């Protein structure tokens, strides 16, 4: 075999290997996997698993689904992300926000929730394959914060009825608020006492955990610190287990004073394709097209929010732990997780900030920790489902309230007011509209952010100074929406002046120019010639200068600096005089 052919085969082999590693990141870290990593991954996976099980049960309540659907949604992500994920810390599964979005669309209908997972996964995977991750950049921080704050309030208040043991409260937010207060006299004493006690224990354990790392915290033996940290980390599981034991004890003595979860499907979910049609209570068959039509704009909002939440988490922990992620590969991992999850009756999932933080703090070394977490969830489904009958709804409500409370970030309002007051507009629009319909809040916030962005593009800052010759300095780029504004400034302050003035256009911020701008500049140059004054360009980028020269604009004049342009025009004025 000749040497050139061998070289080509070698290059092809290297390219194929690097491409395969890009699509399957597990091939990057698995060959150098160490025994020490296994120990840390087992510990982290077990700890996250004990956090995941009670949260998954609770988030299913938020989604309006039977509690087992939370567990159905919690195990596929660990397996898929181990193969496709690029962050060692991220854990995929049910989250408060995705559960709320799911409920707002499917209204607690399991079949539709599973189909929604499939469609979201296809959209997310398609975006990854088409490298469309940049679209997430158009969702601004104020929109995200407005949505998360509103979601936290909606989810948190939605659990008050479970703390009080109330029945028959509507799910629409405003009606929910009204009927929750209206039905307070019907509150069950057992649920109220247990719910408040669970909240107190969770908050106490959380503060104990945070105090361990606080400056000036009292010193204590390392074993004690480790014990406190471990107990505080798995606080959700401990509270749910303890409250379930209490509920079981009362029921055994014939005093069912707590509202419990009740019967749940036992065993692992069957592996089958998600349903593509639905049947209503009166027997009417709803086709796939009708279901998709009912989903409407949610098919854009939910995949985007899932991607945004997970990638933001991955970037945060990658920065904290000094490694890099591939955003498009993360999109693919989330998309495939939702696609495969739909075959085991899961609803849409994404990265969880709380569980990812636990994963990182426990010292996980690779994404393999997710496999251990998934095994814990599967074991719970296989053997513990009968015990879930006695889980009090008040305890799950306490878990959810403590999970979403940190999402209400009131300090961000003061920061936006201090930095740029106009950013409060998309924040407020998103926040208020989200109480009407969650997806409308996001769409409304993005629309307002887009309008502000377009306004800034169409009305770029311009500094105008008069030196006998008018100097117009463009404060940002110049694109076609801004041409009319530039033309208006020049006409009103130079061409319509008496006598007309020459203009020096300082373009050092302009890096791109399009046909509409060229056309408008050509017209301006013609207007200047008719009035026997000049329009001089200065400090142009080389690429922009080449475009203007290629356009062969009649009367085009260029100087390297503003000073040179002013000297030239002053000399021209003196000559004319």
Automatic annotation (TrEMBL):
Cross-referenced NCBIfam families: sulP
Keyword Glycoprotein annotated: no
InterPro entries: S04_transporter_CS, SLC26A/SulP_dom, SLC26A/SulP_fam, STAS_dom, STAS_dom_sf
Domain STAS: 468-577
Protein name: Solute carrier family 26 member 11
Annotated Pfam families: STAS, Sulfate_transp
Sorted UniProt keywords: Membrane, Transmembrane, Transmembrane helix
Topology term for the membrane: Multi-pass membrane protein
Subcellular location as annotated: Membrane
Recorded GO CC terms: membrane
Single GO molecular function: secondary active sulfate transmembrane transporter activity
Transmembrane annotation, as ranges: 42-60, 114-134, 189-207, 227-250, 295-318, 330-349, 369-389, 396-414, 434-455
Domain of life assignment: Eukaryota
């Amino acid at each position: 075999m000749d040497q050139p052919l061998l070289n080509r085969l070698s290059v092809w082999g290297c390219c194929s290997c690097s491409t395969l590693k890009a699509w399957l990141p597990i091939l990057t870290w698995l060959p150098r996997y160490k025994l020490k990593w296994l120990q840390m991954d087992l510990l982290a996976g077990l700890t996250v698993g004990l956090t995941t099980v009670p949260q998954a049960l609770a988030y299913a309540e938020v989604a309006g689904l039977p509690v087992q659907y939370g567990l159905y949604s919690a195990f596929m992500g660990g397996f898929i992300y181990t193969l496709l994920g690029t962050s060692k810390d991220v854990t995929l599964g049910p989250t408060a926000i995705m559960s709320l979005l799911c409920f707002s669309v499917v209204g607690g209908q399991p079949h539709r929730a599973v189909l929604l997972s499939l469609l979201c996964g296809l959209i997310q995977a398609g975006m990854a394959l088409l490298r469309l991750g940049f679209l997430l950049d158009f969702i601004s921080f104020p929109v995200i914060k407005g949505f998360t704050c509103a979601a936290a309030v909606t989810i948190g208040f939605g659990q008050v009825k479970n703390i009080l043991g109330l029945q028959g409260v509507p799910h629409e937010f405003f009606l929910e608020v009204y009927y929750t207060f209206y039905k307070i006299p019907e509150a069950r004493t057992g649920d109220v006492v247990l719910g408040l006690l669970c909240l107190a224990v969770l908050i106490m354990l959380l503060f104990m955990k945070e105090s361990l790392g606080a400056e000036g915290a009292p010193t204590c033996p390392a074993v004690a610190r480790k014990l406190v940290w471990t107990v505080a980390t798995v606080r959700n599981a401990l509270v749910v287990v303890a409250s379930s034991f209490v509920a079981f004890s009362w029921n055994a003595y014939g005093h069912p004073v707590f509202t419990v979860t009740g019967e749940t499907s036992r065993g692992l979910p069957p592996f089958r394709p998600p349903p593509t049609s639905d049947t209503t209570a009166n027997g009417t068959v709803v086709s796939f097209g009708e279901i998709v039509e009912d989903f409407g704009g949610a098919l854009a909002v939910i995949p985007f929010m899932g991607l945004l939440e997970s990638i933001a988490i991955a970037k945060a922990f990658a920065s904290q732990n000094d490694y890099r992620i591939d955003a498009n590969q993360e999109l693919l991992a989330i998309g495939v997780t939702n696609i495969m999850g739909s075959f085991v009756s899961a609803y849409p999932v994404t990265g969880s900030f709380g569980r990812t933080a636990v994963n990182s703090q426990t010292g996980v070394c690779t994404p393999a920790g997710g496999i251990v977490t998934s095994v814990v969830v599967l074991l719970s489904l296989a053997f513990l489902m009968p015990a879930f009958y006695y889980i009090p709804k008040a305890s799950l409500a306490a878990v959810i309230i403590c999970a979403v409370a940190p999402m209400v970030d009131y300090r961000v309002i003061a920061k936006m007011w201090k930095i740029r007051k106009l950013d409060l507009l998309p924040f407020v629009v998103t926040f208020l509209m989200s109480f009407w319909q969650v997806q409308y809040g996001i769409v409304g916030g993005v629309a307002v952010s887009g309008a502000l962005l377009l306004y800034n593009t169409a009305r770029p800052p311009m500094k105008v100074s008069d030196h006998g010759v008018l100097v117009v300095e463009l404060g940002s780029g110049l694109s076609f929406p801004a041409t009319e504004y530039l033309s208006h400034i020049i006409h009103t302050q130079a061409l319509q002046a008496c006598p007309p003035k020459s203009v020096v256009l300082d373009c050092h911020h302009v890096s791109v120019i399009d046909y509409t701008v060229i056309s408008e500049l050509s017209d301006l140059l013609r207007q200047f010639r008719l009035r026997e004054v000049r329009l001089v360009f200065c400090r142009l980028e080389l690429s922009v200068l080449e475009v203007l020269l290629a356009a062969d604009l009649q009367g085009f004049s260029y100087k390297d600096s503003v000073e040179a342009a002013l000297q030239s025009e002053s000399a021209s004025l003196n000559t004319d005089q």
